[in-house]
């Protein structure tokens, strides 16, 4: 078993809930080293995502990823919309015809998402960006696949690694984005993009219920 359309839709509903719940945290993180709009922008974007997902049926996980990408690009301001949108579009291209996403598909989608963010943002590990959460997430997902982990295990490994990667951005000096203008003063603060990335992956890994059309659906092993 893996992540089918219903499970992916439910996962994005959980993402919207988690981002909304952490809106103020993300605003505060971004206010410290950016312009303070990351939490508000993502909350607006994922609220729109929930509405888009409820408007009709979806044929495949890739279609869901593309819909979410286009919605975020059109509704999220700043750098976050294009970066998240590009990540999801690349992920969709990595699993174009899959009815369900198995462990290898999840790892491939994450790797493609990382490639998209790197290409769009021209950032690398250590720059204090969302890449610092995605790089360890991809590595952990690929290790979990190599160890024979099921879909749930791969998502859990990616989530835990992204959480650690986000925390480890605190001592870094930003080299990309608005935070880079602060130079050494950017050290001592979590990167908001890395934190939101960890929240998104955590929502995907969570087995919690969702108020979507498929409540309680989760990616299965």
List keywords for this structure.
221 residues; Serine Threonine Protein Phosphatase 5, Tetratricopeptide repeat; mainly alpha; 9 helices; single chain
Topology readout:
Blueprint: H1 5-21, H2 23-33, H3 38-53, H4 61-75, H5 80-94, H6 103-121, H7 131-146, H8 151-167, H9 192-205
Helix pairs in contact: 1-3, 1-4, 1-9, 2-3, 2-9, 3-4, 4-5, 5-6, 6-7, 6-8, 7-8, 7-9, 8-9
Average pLDDT? 92
**Gross geometry:** globular
Low-confidence segments, given as residue ranges, are 209-216
**What is the number of beta strands?**
0
CATH topology descriptor: Serine Threonine Protein Phosphatase 5, Tetratricopeptide repeat
Strand content: under 5%
The secondary-structure element order is HHHHHHHHH
CATH architecture: Alpha Horseshoe
Radius of gyration: 16 Å
Q: Distance N terminus to C terminus? A: 5 Å
- Helical/strand content category: mainly alpha
Percentage of residues assigned to helices: 55-70%
CATH class: Mainly Alpha
What would you give as the CATH superfamily?
DhaL domain
| Number of domains as seen in the coordinates | 1
The description of the largest β-sheet is: none
SS summary, helix count: 9
GO molecular function, one term: kinase activity
Protein name: Dihydroxyacetone kinase, C-terminal domain
Organism: Actinoalloteichus caeruleus DSM 43889
InterPro entries: DhaK_L_YcgS (IPR012737), DhaL_dom (IPR004007), DhaL_dom_sf (IPR036117), Dihydroxyacetone_Kinase (IPR050861)
